[in-house]
Amino acid sequence: MILQAEEVLRDCREALDDFVDGLQGRRWRRHWILCLTLVRCVGHVLKEVDRKSDGTLRSIVDIEYQELEQRKPEPRIFWEFIKKERDSILKQYRTSAGQGVTIDLEENKTTYDYVINEGVFKGYEQRELLKQAINFWEQHIANIKKKYEQWGK
Question: Which residues, including other chains, have CB under 8 Å from residue 26's CB and lie 6 or more apart?
C-alpha cells in the first residue's frame, strides 16, 4: 500500500536535500517556509486524503491521531516544531528560525548558520530538526502500515 502522504514525505526529503549552505535572505525564508509547509502537509494528507480512502485505514489513522493528542506535549518534534512553527508561519508570517553568515578573511572561509532562535528548540540546527521531523513521519506512517497489515488488509 502506497499512501499519498508518502509522496509528500518524498518531497520533504528532496526539499531538505536542496537546503544547502548559501541560502540567505528571502531565498532562505522561502525555502524554510516550503520545508515547514511540506513537513506539516504530511499529516494533513494522511488525515484528509489517505484516511478517507479505506475504512480500515480510517480507523487506524483515527486511533493514531487520538494517541498523538493524548500524549501531548510529546512528541515535541510534532507539537513544538512541525505544528507550532508551521502555524506561526501561516497564521502570522513569523518564524523562530534565522540564518547568518560569517566570513573569515584570514582563512578565506565562509560559514553559514541556520539555527532556531527561540522556543524549546532554540539553538538547534534547522536541517537537523527537519530530519527529525521527517523521521517522525516515517515512523508514524510505518506504524500505520504495520497495523493495516495486522488488521488483515
Answer: none
- With a CB cutoff of 8 Å and minimum separation 6, the contacts of 35 are 12, 15, 16, 19, 130
Q: What is the pLDDT of residue 103?
A: 95
Residue 110 cell numbers, joined: 565562509
Entry pTM: 0.94
Nearest residue to 42 via CA among 1, 3, 9, 81: 9
Strand partners, 59: none
pLDDT tens, residue by residue, 33-85: 999 999 999 999 999 999 999 999 999 999 999 999 999 999 999 999 999 99
Averaged pLDDT, 103-128 = 96
**Where are the extended beta strands (E) located within the chain?**
97-104, 109-116
Calpha distance 72→15 (Å, rounded):
28
8 Å CB contact between 15 and 34: yes
